[in-house]
Amino acid sequence: MANWLVTGGAGFIGTNFIHHILSIRQDVTVVNFDLLTYAGNPDGLSMYAGNPRYRFIKGDICDRKQVDAALRDNCIDTIVHFAAESHVDRSILGPMRFVMTNVNGTATLLDAARDYWGREGKDIPGEKRFHHISTDEVFGSLKPDEPAWTEASPYMPNSPYAASKAGSDHLVRAYGHTYGLPVTISNCSNNYGPYQFPEKLIPLVILNAVNGKPLPVYGDGQQIRDWLYVEDHCEAIRLILEKGKPGETYNIGGMNQPANLTIVKTICSLLDELVPDPSFCPHEKLITYVQDRPGHDRRYAMDSTKIKRELGWSPKYTLETGLRKTVEWYLANQDFVQKLTDRSDFKNWMDENYTERGGSSK
Ligand code: NAD
Ligand code: DAU
After folding, report:
1. Which partner for 224 in 46, 241, 253, 299 could form a disulfide, CB atoms 3.0-4.6 Å apart?
2. Distance, CA 64 to ligand 2 centroid (Å)?
3. Is there a catalytic annotation at residue 137?
4. For residue range 281-298, what is the model confidence (pLDDT) as tens digits?
């Protein structure tokens, strides 16, 4: 059995990744190490209670003692590092938590892995691997005619979130280079799909629309993201763990690059079809232009040629198939989502963010 420590496994991508791995890799045991911040929700994995191949530890990646114990007690040979503060808007209102978790937390994990695999854990059979999940936002913002980012593109992070992820990437690379820690990094574009926390654009728009609330579009809504269905991302990470070379970095993008406004309108049309409630149809009438995000990146696009060529990965979902599946999932899982949105920390955040943005900038 291989023993994998998945940090941040109660978050959006981590939850999807654990489902993916436990269903595809019968030879892997997963230890989910997560602090359960506002963004963490273990309910998405409750079906594994009592499963000998799954264990949950409530722990903080910034706490060296907790990390050491998690590695030692579970004979960990592979670390898949998702845990982070992930929301750009929150990083603008409060950057220090991002530096603490994303930079210090990653450094703590790296140092613990270096010690453990270099000393008592060195006799654990099988290959070791530290895989770090990062973002396309480290590359900054593209002009309309600039080519998509490759692994060789320079880092130019713009938001405190992006800068904290860039810092963590540099630390991972440095631990590989200096200490020979077997590291890989993936930089990925915007994910969407089941279990995403409803502060992010796609789940926020679905839930607001279903409830007849305004759909906030920042600025002119012409910003471009490279949308990737989360299951495709999980497959890419698994392939990197199975076949990727230590020391390498891989870009992962969805090849779906419509403007935000198009995404919002597509969700509205899907809801017109799936929830034809006459009081809210057409859902598009709920679109509300609000003040833009400060320093808002205009365009992201990833060149995934390397991971396609070297590992044979390509996304299976188009935006059409992925968005339909996502909308259907949120409609079928309203109880799960309601539990999150009922929490006072979520309500406070929504109030703070949208009061900050005012009613309408158009
Ligand atoms: P998320 O916010 O949904 O989940 C983050 C998880 O990390 C939560 O479960 C939270 O409880 C946990 N966590 C936070 N601080 C912790 C700490 N100190 N110790 C232990 N656990 C802690 O995030 P996500 O969207 O699933 O993103 C996961 C990773 O992927 C992040 O590193 C993010 O930067 C990266 N990423 C996300 C996207 C995206 O579109 N969501 C795209 C590219 C990269
Ligand atoms: O690009 C990868 C990144 O994607 C990840 O690294 C981050 O962890 C993840 O949160 C995501 O960042 P974004 O800032 O791109 O995601 P968000 O869903 O917050 O916003 C997507 C776009 O939609 C962005 O241009 C801002 C805009 N937006 C967002 C919200 C929440 C709106 O217009 N209205 C909204 O209410």
Report:
1. 299
2. 31
3. yes
4. 999 999 999 999 999 999
